[in-house]
Amino acid sequence: MPGSRDVASGGALPYVPARGGIPALRRAAADCRGCSLYEDATQTVFGAGRARARLMLVGEQPGDQEDKAGEPFVGPAGHLLRKALGEAGIDEEQAYFTNAVKHFKFAPVTEGRKRRIHKAPNLRELTACRPWLAAEVRRVNPELLIALGATAGKSLLGNSFKVTESRGALLSLASGRDLPLAVDEEEGDGHRRLLATVHPSAVLRAKDREEAYGGLVSDLRVAARFLG
Q1: How confident is the prediction along the chain (228 residues), in pLDDT tens digits per residue?
Q2: What is the side-by-side strand order in the sheet with 48-49?
Q3: Which residue segments constitute the domains of the chain, with CATH numbers given?
Q4: If you count DSSP H runs as helices and E runs as strands, how many of each does the chain have, helices first?
Q5: 3-class secondary-structure state, position 106
Q6: Could you give the count of Cα atoms lying within 13 Å of 64 in the half-sphere of its Cβ?
Q7: How far apart, in whole angstroms, are the C-alpha atoms of residue 120 and residue 226?
């Protein structure tokens, strides 16, 4: 098992098993010390859903409720996302849900009671956790990835990614050459696509929530048409 030197180097790669499916990855990720986020988080929150899904949805990181439950997308943003998927014509039972970063990053705030406020992961943390996302994509082998927000998009496409420039469009990931995590080296089928949209938490924060929700559903309908 990797020790403190691996934590200092900021990389999860030594913890990722070379063999086994999603259950093996989940077990190994529970002991990940690839960056310092594990120190304050309750637990690793790994991906969940169909082990061989045509669709993979990638968010930023688990939130407060996900950190406590140990499952992705179980809080308010997750409920909104699942509602939007259904409205777009996508069966959530056929999808795989995960995040670019597997531990909850937060700032503690006390206002009469304990609260934990979400903080966006930085580039070092995003890079450290990328081997887990790469392994998930290899194991699940989806035809389509949906990047929910800027952090997920940057993890998949690099730091120059901007949701405002790419949302709602099907992007080609031919043979993984466009992916920083190079997930298609073995398959090399050239058919994997990516669609970017906003994170559902952005819809919850929007001034006009109805309009923002409609935009999310519209983007997800592009995915539904692609999946047929």
Answers
A1: 454 444 445 599 999 999 999 999 999 999 999 999 999 999 999 999 999 999 999 999 999 999 999 999 999 999 999 999 999 999 999 999 999 999 999 987 666 556 788 899 999 999 999 999 999 999 999 999 999 999 999 999 888 888 888 899 998 875 444 455 544 444 444 578 999 999 999 999 999 999 999 999 999 999 999 999
A2: 48-49, 95-99, 55-59, 144-148, 193-197, 170-172
A3: 4-227 (3.40.470.10)
A4: 9, 8
A5: strand
A6: 12
A7: 31
